[in-house]
Structure formats: structure tokens, C-alpha cells
Amino acid sequence: MWRRNLTSDLAAALGDSPVVLINGARQVGKSTLARELVDPGERGYFTLDDATVLSAAASAPLSFLEQSVGRVVIDEVQRAPELFLAIKKLVDEDRRPGRFLLTGSANALTLPKIADSLAGRMEIQTLWPLSQGEIEGRCESFIDACFATGPMPEVEGVVWDDLTRRLYYGGYPEVLTRLEPRRVDAWFRAYLTAILERDIRDLANIEGLRELPNLLRLLATRAGGLLSYAELSRIGKVPNTTLKRYIALLEAVFLFIPLPAWFRNEEKRLVKAPKAYLNDTGLLMHLRGLNPERLNDHMLAGPVVENFVVMELAKQRGWSRTLPTLYHFRTAVGKEVDVVLEAPDGRLVGVEVKSTSEASTRDFAGLKELAKLEPERFHRGVVLYTGEKTVSFGANLTAMPLSALWRV
């Protein structure tokens, strides 16, 4: 059993919010975490994966909710959107904190009935696959260290074989219990089939469902690259409007993660297209047919390592004290920063990712460009690489072992 680093924040939310929703992809541990947050004596736990429970919730939502005394926990709540108006009515009558704990495998902000009915009444937390720190039983603070003052700490470097193993297994709890690659691939095949055939059908009535697996594979081959709808439409032979709808659905079930571009409205020389990522490197490598040995080719490893870093930062954002927003940065002439973290007070931290064991001055070109563009807001630039030493490359510019992500 892995302790999730969001647990304390969720417990705090239940102490002051009437409704708390744990969002996230299937099989990342939402139900397990919800059960941990409920007192063993409480009986108001329902899963809408049960056909009888789902039918009752959808046909008579108010009666369904009123049958329970105390906290009500509803798993996979997006399957019965009719519940949300009933929850709103009960909360408006009695705003006691922690009345409803919900989990959902579809992004609540994409479902109008949810977003509109519970605005101001519900706190939403996203649970991703396990972070590297959660796997090792620690709570990472890399993001907060980047925004702190003073030099970054020294950390022990990463061994390449250990890194490729982490990339291959990713963070889905069930995958981490499987030792044989054939069993890992079997799990991902069954997982994708279940999501594409059930969850996405629940969200939208899709024709041509067979196109979605091919689209997801196409997105996997473009991980770390700019998202071009025109290119994907041409290669995938899917009309542009249909393609955008499909990608929105893959995003809604937390498989596809677009990283928006950082730019200023008056700045004309910056690329404004998002970059494409998947939610887990294990899933990414499965879709691309990669194994740890093939990652010895650094051309193949680069996008996977970058996807890994982006998602580790997205996970850590959930429990960081800084709570930055994540972007990427690229100029029209190709200078780029893989991840820009923007704090609520406007400070910027840039993180550049390298799959090589050496860092050089040229690896800091994008970070220096960002610092030049925003000298008052730029706080720090970090190049994460697969070497062993933490090395200063100038004021607020540091090269660090990739393992700093989970060892700081």
C-alpha cells in the first residue's frame, strides 16, 4: 500500500468544504484513497460501477442521497451527472463540511452539469499515477526548493538502468506489482480497451471509436512535441473538427495532457501552440513498443524522459506550497524551456530536461532567453540531466541530476 502525498490536503479539504472531488484516470488509486479518508464505521459508500447502484442514483438521485446518514462517498460519480443538482440542493440546505466525498474518472470541469451546479461548493483535487517519491515513501519538495532562496541542494545522481526501469513501469499501482514485461503489456492493453470502450462512451456518443486507439498512438509518437491538429488530421485521416473532439475526450479521461505555452500578449516572437504529453511513461512506452533496452538510444529516450519530468512536476504541484502553473516556453527561432513554473506571485522557474549524462552552457540557452525576457520575474533555471553532480552555471542557473525530482 502506497501512501498518497495528497492525503493530508484532502483531509483538510474535508474539514472545511461541503463537497470534495478526487479526479483522475482509472486505476490510479482514487477509490483506495477515498476509503482511507472514510471512518471504518461509515456505511455511505457507493460505487456507480455497480449497475444496480447506478440505476438507482440516476433514476431517483435525491432519494438515493438521502438514504445515508453522515458522509456520503460516491465512486465514479461522473456516470450519474443527475446526482449533482441533488447534491447542490442538500448542500444549500446544510453546508456542513465533508458531507460528500466523490471520485471521478472524467475531468469535472469538462462536464457542465458538474461545474455549474457545484461552483463555490466543491474542492477538486487531481490524483495522478504514483509519483517517484510516493513509490519510495516520501513527499517530494523539488518545486518548493526551486522557488526558495539560496542554492539548490546536492543530491545523489541517478543510475541509467534505474531510470529506464522507472520510465518503463511508470506510476500505475497495478503495473508496479507485475514483474514480467508481457504482463505489463497485457495490463495496459486491457486498461486502454476498458477506457476507450466504456468511459469515453459514457462521456459522448462517439461514432468511429476504432480511430481513438490510433490517435492515442499518434500522440504517443509526438510526446514532447508541439501539438499540430493539421498534421494529426492529415496523418490520422480524421477531419479536424472530429480530431479536436477526440483529443478533448482523451484529455477529459486524463490520458492526454496538453502543456500550454507561456507567452505575453505583446510578445510576437513566441510560439503559442501547446505541447503534447501522456499521463504516464509506462503507458507511453507501451504505446510506442519501447522497452528499457531501447532507451539506450538517446533519440528515443529524450521524449520519454521529458514526459517523465513534466508529469512528475504535475504530480508534485498538487501538494507543493507554491502551487505554480505549468507551461512550456519556445521562441520563433527555436530557443525553448521544457517547463516553466509560474508562481501565483508571478515568479518564474524554468526547468530544462536532458537525457544525457553531461550538461553544457548551450543547454541553458532557453533559460537565459526567458531570464532576458523577464529579468524581474525570473527566479531560477534548472537543467535536469542524467549525470551525478549539482553544478552552478551562473547566477540562479544550476545543472542537477534528474533524481533531484524525487530526492529533494
Keywords:
alpha/beta, 6-stranded mixed beta sheet, 5-stranded parallel beta sheet, 17 helices, globular
Structure description:
- The protein is an alpha/beta fold and 408 residues long.
- It has helices spanning 7-14, 30-36, 51-59, 61-66, 83-93, 112-117, 132-136, 142-147, 160-169, 181-203, 211-221, 229-236, 240-252, 281-288, 298-317, 365-373, 404-407, and strands at residues 19-23, 45-47, 72-75, 100-104, 122-126, 256-259, 275-278, 325-330, 336-342, 348-353, 378-385, 391-392, 397-401.
- The relative contact order is 0.12.
- The mean pLDDT is 91.
Structural class: alpha/beta
Largest β sheet strand count, sense and barrel closure: 6 strands, mixed
**Strand fraction:** 15-25%
Q: Give the SSE order as H and E letters.
A: HEHEHHEHEHEHHHHHHHEEHHEEEHEEEH
Low-pLDDT runs? none
C-alpha end-to-end distance: 23 Å
The chain-level mean pLDDT equals: 91
Radius of gyration: 22 Å
Number of E strands: 13
Helix content: 40-55%
Strand order of the largest sheet: 8-9-10-11-13-12
What count of helical segments does DSSP give? 17
Shape: globular
